[in-house]
Write a structure and sequence with these properties.
By secondary structure, this protein is mainly alpha-helical. The protein contains six helices and two strands, in the order αααααββα. The longest helix has 12 residues, at 10-21. Pfam families: GcrA.
């Protein structure tokens, strides 16, 4: 049975520390040492080696906090959600439709069909727990009304990156 050599020898750890202090990226360190980028990140973490945040990172964090200092919810919208919004609203600039959501079609999990809205009503396990049950078009998980709640458009939804 072959003997495996350890990934992190004393020599590699010293090289890691030197490269880290020199400001090399994890990718550059990994290429020079001969390990994966994830191995470098993990070892840096275990050694408690961290870099100070750059000015851009601090500005981004400040921008993503509200006035109380609590982080705001992420605003990035995945492509699928963007496509769902486009389907629901017809186009990104269309006004948000308002209106009540029909409550007549509520159903249990056993009654939930393929083209029915899966929006949960109440708390799972509660006596009155059920699903919306309204018609969900084009393979969507929710009816149009609950899709408006689930996928709220915002200014970043229009700028999608490939």
């Amino acid at each position: 049975m072959p003997v495996l050599s350890p990934t992190w020898t004393n020599e590699r750890i010293e090289l890691l520390k030197q490269h880290f202090e020199a400001g090399l990226s994890c990718r550059e360190i990994a290429a020079d040492i001969g390990v994966s980028r994830n191995a470098v990140i993990g070892k840096l973490s275990r050694l408690n080696l961290t870099r100070g945040r750059s000015l851009d990172e601090r500005r981004l964090q400040d921008r993503n906090q509200d006035r109380t200092g609590a982080p705001r919810a992420q605003r990035a919208v995945p492509r699928l959600q963007f496509e769902m919004l486009a389907t629901i609203y017809g186009e990104a600039d269309a006004p948000v439709a308002t209106g009540s959501i029909d409550e007549a079609n509520r159903c249990s999990l056993m009654e939930l069909g393929e083209n029915r809205c899966r929006w949960p009503i109440s708390t799972p396990g509660a006596e009155d727990f059920c699903f919306c049950g309204n018609v969900a078009h084009d393979g969507q998980p929710y009816c149009a009304g609950h899709s408006r709640l689930a996928y709220k458009p915002n200014s970043r939804a229009r700028v999608m990156r490939g």
